[in-house]
Each structure stands twice: as C-alpha cells, then as structure tokens.
Amino acid sequence: APAPIIAPSILSADFAALGAACSKTISDGADWLHVDIMDGHFVPNITFGAPIVAKIRSHVERPQTAYGKGTFDCHMMISEPKKWVKDFQKAGCDNYCFHYEAAIDSTAAENPEEVTDKKTSPKEMIAYIHSLNMRAGIAIKPKTPVDVLWEILDNHNKDEVPDMVLVMTVEPGFGGQSFMADMMPKVKALRERFPNLNIEVDGGLSEKTIDQAANAGANVIVAGSAVFGAKSPADAISKLREGVEK
Ligand code: DX5
Ligand code: ZN
Questions:
Q1: Which atom belonging to ligand 1 lies closest to the Cα atom of 168?
Q2: Predicted structure pTM score
Q3: Disulfide bond as a keyword (predicted)?
Q4: What average pLDDT does the segment 34-56 reach?
Q5: Please, are residues 81 and 43 in contact by the beta-carbon 8 Å criterion?
Q6: Would you call 168 exposed, middle or buried from its count of C-beta atoms within 10 A (0-12, 13-18, 19+)?
Q7: Which of 20, 52, 209, 239 has CB 3.0 to 4.6 Å from 179, enough for a Cys bridge?
Q8: What is the ipTM of this complex?
C-alpha cells in the first residue's frame, strides 16, 4: 500500500482560531489537513466555504509535491460539487474530494427524462478537477456499495480516474461519531484490486479503531476528535501513524 498519510479533520479544531490551529497541527506532525465542507443540504450541518479556506491557506505552506505535507484535502459534502471546483482551487485546495451520491450520472438513471436535477457524472467531475490541476477524490457514504466504483476506477482514460477513494466510516455530517467496522469489507475489496490507490477512511478513527482500518488496507487516515480532543495532538498523530505502519 502507498505511504501512510495522517489527515486531521479541522472540523474539531477551534473555529475562532482556525489559522493557528492549522499551522500547529502541521507542526504536530500531520501530513494533510482534512477540510470538511458541508452545505446544510447534502448533510444536515453547515461548516464554511472557500473564503475561509483561502484565509487558512495563508497560515499553512503549500505542499512542495503532489500529496506533500500541507495538502488541503477538501471533503465536499455538498449537493452541487461541480459549482464550487474553481472557487476552491483559487482558495488553495489541493485535493477536491466530491461525493459519488452528489454526482450520479443522470443518463444512467432508470428514467433519464424524469431527472430534473441534472448532475455531473463522476468521470466528468474528475476530468474537470484535473483540468484545474488538483487531485480528485471520490467519497462514498456508508449505504453506497463499493461496486459503483469499479467502472470509475477501471477507466483507461487517466484524466477521468480518481487519485483517491474516501470510504466513509460514519454517516457524514458530524464529528465524534462511532466507527462503523462493517465498512471494512469495502476497504479490503478496494485494496485487493488497487494496490497503489490512496484509500482514505473518515469517521470514528482513533487509537482504538486504527488497526481495523489499517488491516483492511486504508492508508489515508482522517481523525477529528481523536486528534483535537487529545491532551497531546502530536502523540495522537504519531500513534495513528504507527498503527498504519505496523
Ligand atoms: C464527518 C466528517 C469527518 C469528521 C470526523 O462528516 O467528514 O471528517 O470530522 O470526525 P471524527 O474523527 O471525530 O469522527
Ligand atoms: Zn470528512
């Protein structure tokens, strides 16, 4: 599997002092910052948008390489992922990770002519994100089967293939929920087929659950409450890393 990447979710950081919290998290040993964008529509909660991302970007050095330290991993829990790609690119986002459920191809629907809410297909989304020089991630909610991803990952047109898959291990919307161990077969199935893929898990990750995620094959670990709620966030980050390395 690719190298372990620890991506603390700043959803659990102090929003009134976000810039300082972000730069501290990087000096505490984080590789990426996981930035949760919620629109109150795709999920029942609202966080913040591109203007805030641009502000915190000025507190964290841009990564030197693709996927390097300081990568802003934006998890877009929003209904119209296409609409915000440019704004987030301008704000300094490095990975734009949209939800599969928000980008289902309307032409593939049972009755395409009845689909009024025309969505952009995953492969169109990915190509568009790549055209703006960002990495593209695709996320699936707990109730979405992993099988929907095979066709997207097996595509021979590299521009349309995601750089990362995010398997949600809680229902998206809130920090501090319990890890859903029954999502691990999805991670295993992905790892078996794609040995070099970045596979991210998000929700309920901690010292207690990291082994399950790592054994299944996840290498990108998101953790909000386990990092920001810890006495020593630096220790929490290194324990998560050890959990993936061993
Ligand atoms: C949930 C978010 C997560 C959240 C994880 O919708 O996508 O990134 O911050 O929080 P913890 O690690 O506390 O479960
Ligand atoms: Zn997230």
A1: 7
A2: 0.95
A3: no
A4: 97
A5: no
A6: buried
A7: 209
A8: 0.99
